């Protein structure tokens, strides 16, 4: 069986994706113009599939450059949609297995160097630090080119369909500040603060004293310099460390933007109890995180995402998270799903990557750049298809009088 024809049943006879292979074979979709072409460049691509016949094998082939996509990757992934090998007939699977099996012995291949395997106890401080270092301590310059001037690596909030990525990131920070009711003189704890943009926004626009904590050494160094450049040193501290090591308390507000995905199901109850304990009576928590839409979608990340992007990432249903947040003592006051906004955010980051491709490759290496070129459109499709969501949940720590301090109808 020719290589291109071997792939066609897996992708689907009607899938509008063409296939071109190193053996000279080609396959075009029946009844549709192709939106992209999958280029199987060498036998090594098949060897990766033989060793891991799933998304991890395909990702290894792509990251290493032995498999490529000509055309828009987002359009290609959208066209393939929810297709799985379960749609392939048993006879086809047998023929494919027979073709690929010898490659595992004849052509052994090591994973690309960008692949990461975790060590130690899951979600221990050392292992969490290792996971964060893998993804974030790559190159601040690389992130500047991809994320843009906002340096915000979390879902933006688009005030309109024509808003820029920078406008949307500012709107996100403003929305969080509004939900937390930040006012001059208040104290904010921002856990998993990234490059410190929420902490700096709170200080610059609301006169808040903010402590941001990140496990990434590179993020902390960048943010500390930016705090000094903006003249915010009297209001903002960026600390390199684990949020669990914060000893201060009696904060007026806590923001957790993009951290919960890294906590792990087993540790979530303790995580919310810890944040509850950091707040004064009447203080608010805004928890912003990626979730799965229901308990039927898998909690652990896809193998490609786990090895190449977010090691040990774990997504949980928003209802489950709200229950644990409530059990920790919080009264839940507001919740909203922003998944369409994350799709737009990812599209903006992908556009930045393409616009700065050569410089991104020079800064972080071609393999790393290809990881991003694949994972961002894949996640964008996930949000579009409602395989993943993004929720903001707002809670308050009530006092003995049970007064929440919320207006009858908040503007947001």
Automatic annotation (TrEMBL):
<dbReference type="InterPro" id="IPR050723">
    <property type="entry name" value="CFA/CMAS"/>
</dbReference>
<dbReference type="Pfam" id="PF02353">
    <property type="entry name" value="CMAS"/>
</dbReference>
<protein>
    <submittedName>
        <fullName>Class I SAM-dependent methyltransferase</fullName>
        <ecNumber>2.1.1.-</ecNumber>
    </submittedName>
</protein>
<feature type="region of interest" description="Disordered">
    <location>
        <begin position="108"/>
        <end position="130"/>
    </location>
</feature>
<keyword id="KW-0949">S-adenosyl-L-methionine</keyword>
<dbReference type="GO" id="GO:0032259">
    <property type="term" value="P:methylation"/>
</dbReference>
<dbReference type="GO" id="GO:0008168">
    <property type="term" value="F:methyltransferase activity"/>
</dbReference>
<keyword id="KW-0808">Transferase</keyword>
<comment type="similarity">
    <text>Belongs to the CFA/CMAS family.</text>
</comment>
<keyword id="KW-0443">Lipid metabolism</keyword>
<dbReference type="InterPro" id="IPR029063">
    <property type="entry name" value="SAM-dependent_MTases_sf"/>
</dbReference>
<keyword id="KW-0489">Methyltransferase</keyword>
<dbReference type="InterPro" id="IPR003333">
    <property type="entry name" value="CMAS"/>
</dbReference>
